[in-house]
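#structure-requests
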Amino acid sequence: MYERLRAYEGQAAANSGVGKDPVNEPMIRHWCEAMGDAGSAYPATAPATMLQVWTMGGLSGNAGRTGVYDELFALLEEAGYTSIVATDSEQEYFRPLRPGDRVTFDATIESVSPRKTTKLGTGYFVTTRMDVRVDGEPVGSHRFRILKYAPAAKRSAQSAAAKERAQRPRPVVNRDNAGFWEGVADGKLLIQRCDACRTPRFPWLPGCGSCGSAHWTAFEASGAGAVFSYVVMHHPPFPAFDPPYAVGLIELAEGVRMISNVVGVPYDKVRIGMPVELEFLRVDAELTLPVFRATGDTGAGASDSDSGSESDSNAAAHGKGR
């Protein structure tokens, strides 16, 4: 099998592909707003990390595709490697892209790994390299790696029991965020406000991102908010975590956003704009986490039992923040 897969190494996945749209200000603006970078120098130039955006073909695809990638995937799927996950990407930038530039690109299947066994399952890593140009001049390259795998068998009852005994991750408490966790222990969601420019901020930081002042005051949030964005976590299934569950970017009434679990509604019923209210979930004798319960008529038939398994990511989100 591996020899058949290796035969695809070096083959072209795209020849002289052409970006569907030139580099343009609306797309740059959308990207910057999504990244929270509205105050930057863009859109005079495109953010370098947008490199792949200008090569995407959308649902209808791009001219220049050779079909080799599809052949490789078909071979893997016939052999039982039916699942896929993106693992990592690497980009190099040679010059900025500017509005009006029209990109062209070539893509090559750079490598196929020997069969590997991971926690997700057994499969093959496939790496594709794309070289991007404007008027024949190299502007960047993009290397993208995926794992095409056969899902591992479900965990045994013994491993499930081990998960039940596992502790959820402890938040990393330091001098910058200790006040936040002290507030949580007292049943309060505390936000910082700059004493100089009055800008609220979260997560907790030693200085103001707007004016640079190191002086601030903490105040208690109302707990009202709405889902600004969200993801549903399926993998990886760490001990003490019970996927799938919804992790939301919650926009609070005070104007800041924080990451937390959305509870009280099935994970597949969470929606952008859904109103939520703060509540505190006692995870164990030592740990309490702030989570957000969906409010109003969600039409999902949720019950209190929905929240118990959906509090997994909050400790990591806050503890590993700034």
